[in-house]
Automatic annotation (TrEMBL):
Residues 1-24 form the signal peptide. This is Endoglucanase Y. Belongs to the glycosyl hydrolase 8 (cellulase D) family. GO terms for molecular function: hydrolase activity, hydrolyzing O-glycosyl compounds. Keywords: Glycosidase, Hydrolase, Signal. GO terms for biological process: carbohydrate metabolic process. The keyword Metal-binding does not apply. Transmembrane segments: none annotated. It comes from Actinoalloteichus hymeniacidonis. Residues 31-62 are annotated as: Disordered.
C-alpha cells in the first residue's frame, strides 16, 4: 500500500481521498495483495492477428516469424483476459482486477484494459463489448475533485474507497484508449469515443498538468496548499510522450507540444546529470519548479522513490514507444541510452535483468519480473545494434506465462508484446 503522510491543511471534504491514496499510481511488488474473485469472462480467442506494418520508426523487429508472434500474443491475451477481466459487480461493467495493487480495482488497470482491448479488436470478437464495459465502469467512478477524471481505486464490491481522487497514469491511458477505440470502431455507436477522449484530455490538462512547469502532476489532488511538496513532484512513468502527440492531434491544442517538450527536456537533464552511465530514470522527481532531481528518500511511496523501481520500470517502454512511433531524435537518444546500458550490464542475458536499480546501475533487488525486463524490448527496437538482444528479450517474454497474482507485470508484458510485434492501431 502506498504510504502517504496525512495532510492536515486539506479541506475536510477531500482530506480522506488525498490522504489514503494520493493516487499517483499503484504500489506494486512481486507478492499478491488481495484474494482473487471468480472470473465472469470467457477466454476463447477465435480469430488471428491481422498482418500489421512495423512501427513507423522502429529499426528492429523480433526475428521470430509473424505467425509465431501472433500465436504468442493470442495465447497471452487469452490468459490475461481470463485472469484479470471481470464483471462481478454490475451487468454493464467490466473491470480489470489488480490483486497486486493496494485495492482490487484501480484506475491504472482500467486504463490498461481499455488500451489492450482496443488493440485486440481484430483478434477478439468480444473486444468492443469488453471495452465498452470497462469504459462504463470508468464513467461510473468519477474523481471527487474533477468528475471528468476517474477515481483512483475501488474495493471488491466496486465501491470507490480511499482513492476518490484521480491517478494521472490511469487517466492518460483511458484517454488514449478512447482514441484507439475511435480509430478501430468509430464513434457512431453507444459511446462517442472521440468526444469522450477530448473531454478527458481537456480534464487532464486542466487538473493534472502543472500550470508552471507543464509537467504531469501526480493526480488532481496535487495542490499548492493541500500537498505543497508533492505539488512540485512528478512521476517519469507518467511521461507518455506518444500519448501527448496523440492528444495534440485529437484536440488541435498546441499546448500538448509544449507539454511534451517540457518532459523531453527533463528526461535529457535527468539522464545527463543523475544517470550519465545508465540513462535510468527514477520513480519520482521532486522540486520540479526550482531544481528538479530524483526523489530524496521516501517522497510518496518508499525509500526507493528516487531509484529505478516499480514505477520507473515502465520508462523504457513509454519513452521507447515514442522513439519507434515518432522517430523523434530526443526520444531515440533517451531510449538508446537505456538500451545500451542494460544490454552491456547483463552481458546480453535477459535473465540477469534485476527488479530494481539505483540510478548508477547497481542492483538493490534480485529476482526477475516482466515489469522490469519486458519494457527494455521496446527500447531495443530503437537501436540498430540490438537485434540479438531484442531476440533474446522476445524469447524470454514469450516464455513467461501469465501469473494470476501479478496483474501489473502481465499487463505491461502484453502491451509490450503488442508494440514489439507491430500489432494493433498506430495513432
Amino acid at each position: 500500500m502506498r504510504g502517504v503522510r496525512s495532510m492536515t491543511t486539506l479541506p475536510v471534504a477531500v482530506a480522506a481521498a488525498v490522504t489514503l491514496t494520493a493516487s499517483a499510481g499503484i504500489a506494486h511488488s512481486a507478492a499478491p495483495a488481495a484474494e482473487s474473485p471468480s472470473s465472469g469472462v470467457g477466454t476463447t480467442v477465435t480469430s488471428s492477428i491481422a498482418d500489421s506494418p512495423a512501427r513507423p520508426s522502429a529499426l528492429l523487429s523480433p526475428s521470430a516469424s509473424a505467425a509465431d508472434q501472433e500465436a504468442a500474443i493470442a495465447e497471452f491475451y487469452t490468459d490475461w483476459k481470463s485472469a484479470f477481466v471481470r464483471n462481478d459487480c454490475q451487468d454493464d461493467w467490466y473491470h480489470v482486477y489488480s490483486p497486486d495493487a493496494y485495492e482490487p480495482y484501480v484506475a491504472e488497470g482500467q486504463g490498461y484494459g481499455l488500451v489492450i482491448t482496443a488493440q485486440m479488436a481484430d483478434v477478439d470478437p468480444e473486444a468492443q463489448q469488453l471495452f465498452d464495459g470497462i469504459l462504463q465502469y470508468v464513467l461510473d467512478h468519477p474523481s471527487a475533485l474533477d468528475p471528468d477524471l476517474m477515481a483512483g481505486a475501488q474495493d471488491l464490491s466496486c465501491n470507490t474507497t480511499g482513492g476518490q481522487d484521480s491517478a494521472t497514469d490511469g487517466d492518460l491511458d483511458i484517454a488514449y484508449g478512447l482514441l484507439l477505440a475511435d480509430a478501430v470502431w468509430g464513434s457512431e455507436g453507444v459511446h462517442d469515443y472521440h468526444a469522450l477522449a477530448v473531454r478527458r484530455i481537456d480534464a487532464i490538462k486542466r487538473s493534472e498538468v502543472h500550470p508552471d512547469t507543464r509537467l504531469m502532476e501526480l493526480g488532481d489532488w496535487a495542490h499548492p496548499e493541500w500537498t505543497p511538496e508533492l505539488y512540485w513532484g512528478s512521476r517519469p512513468s507518467d511521461w507518455m510522450l506518444g500519448h501527448f502527440r496523440a492528444f495534440r492531434e485529437a484536440t488541435g491544442d498546441s499546448d500538448w507540444d509544449t507539454i511534451r517538450i517540457a518532459h523531453q527536456d527533463l528526461i535529457e537533464t535527468l539522464q545527463q546529470d543523475y544517470a550519465p552511465d545508465t540513462g535510468l530514470l527514477p520513480d519520482f522527481v521532486q522540486d520540479t519548479g526550482t531544481d528538479p532531481k530524483p526523489a530524496q528518500g521516501q517522497f510518496l511511496e518508499s525509500d526507493t522513490d528516487g531509484y529505478f523501481s516499480w514505477n520507473a520500470c515502465r520508462t523504457p517502454w513509454r519513452i521507447g514507444v515514442d522513439a519507434v512511433e515518432s522517430g523523434d531524435p530526443r526520444s531515440v537518444a533517451a531510449a538508446q541510452r537505456m538500451d545500451e546500458w542494460i544490454k552491456q550490464s547483463t552481458g546480453g542475458d535477459p535473465n540477469q535483468i534485476g527488479s530494481g536499480y539505483r540510478l548508477d546501475g547497481t542492483r538493490y533487488a534480485t529476482g526477475s519480473d516482466a515489469a522490469f525486463f519486458a519494457p527494455f524490448a521496446v527500447a531495443a527496437m530503437s537501436n540498430p545494434e540490438s537485434q540479438q538482444w531484442l531476440d533474446a528479450l522476445w524469447a524470454k517474454i514469450v516464455a513467461t506465462e501469465v501469473d494470476p497474482d501479478t496483474y501489473y507485470a502481465a499487463s505491461i508484458q502484453l502491451q509490450v508484446m503488442l508494440i514489439v510485434s507491430g500489432t494493433g492501431v498506430t495513432l
